[in-house]
Sequence to fold (238 residues):
Amino acid sequence: MARKSEEKASTPKEPGRIKQMWQVFQMTRRYDKSIVWIMLLGFLIPVAAGLAVALLLSDGNGFAITMWIIAGVLAGFLIALIILGRRAERAAYGQIAGQPGAVGAVLRSSLKRSWRGSEMPVAVNGKTQDAVYRAVGRGGVVLISEGPKTRTTRMLEEERRKVLRVLPNVPVTFLYVDSKDPDALPLHKVPSRMAKVKPSLNKAEVMAVSNRLTSLGTQGMPIPKGVDPFKVRPQRGR
Fold:
C-alpha cells in the first residue's frame, strides 16, 4: 500500500482543462499571429447580436434582456473555442508539414468516421522518402502522395494499377501533398478535401474494399510513424 501511494505521489498530474486550453492557445499564437483578433471577433459578434436582439424584442423586460445577453456570451465563447480548435490544428500540422509521416499523422487523427486510413504508407521510395498513403471511404479509394508531384506521380499510378487489378469498378482519387509546392494540397486541408470526394460506395462496400486492399500489403522500406501533431513542440522564432 505504501509503495502504491508513493507511485501515485510521484506520478505527475495531467494539466487541467483550462491549463490545457491555455497551452493550446499559446502554441497557436506563436504560429498564427492573428488568432487573438480572430477569436475576439468571433466572441464579440454573437454578443453584439444577442444585445441587439434583446433591445429589439424584449420590450423592456429585464429578464429577457439578461437571457439574450447570456445567450450571446455563451455563443461567443463557443465560437471562439471552435476557432481556436481549428487554428490550433492548422498550426500543429503546419509545424510537421514536410516531415516523413506527416500525412500519416493526418490520417490517424483527423479522418472522419466514413473513411478508413492507415498512418503507415503503402509505398515508400527509400532514397527520397517520398511516400504514398491510402484511405478507403464512401468516395472509393484515395491515394495521397507525400513529396514532389514530379517524383510521386509514378508511384501513385503504380498503386492505382494495383487497386484496379483487384477492384476494377472502384473509383481512385489522387491527392498531392507537398509543403514546398504552392499548387499542392496543404497538409491541414487533406481531411476536408477527402470529405468532398463524391460518394460511390455504401458502408458494407467500404468494409469489403478495405479488407480486400489489406490483402495487398505494403512495399518499400518503412518510415517512422506519423508525428502526432498535438504533441509536437512549437518552433520558436516563427
User: Anything to note?
Assistant: The chain has a mean pLDDT of 80. The radius of gyration is 23 Å. Residues 2-96 form one domain. Residues 62-96 form the longest helix (35 residues).
